[in-house]
Amino acid sequence: MDFRQPIHSDHAKTLDSEGLRRQFLVDPVFVPGQLTLTYSQIDRIVVGGAMPLARRSASRPNSRRSLPSAHFSSDANSA
Length: 79
Description:
3 strands; three-stranded mixed beta sheet
């Protein structure tokens, strides 16, 4: 999981297009055969994508240590 730290709004105003991309663009989201997750402390959001290579169920990594949220950490069958 990629972690993004917030930046001050005054700093963001000084950035050019490339600087804004480095700070805020989440890329790539979809990578063949991988699950990608990016946690941003700005609004505390998680952006992710999954692109399985074959028709089978995709498994998620155990993210309990890095993201202790019941929504992401619990098994689907226990809900």
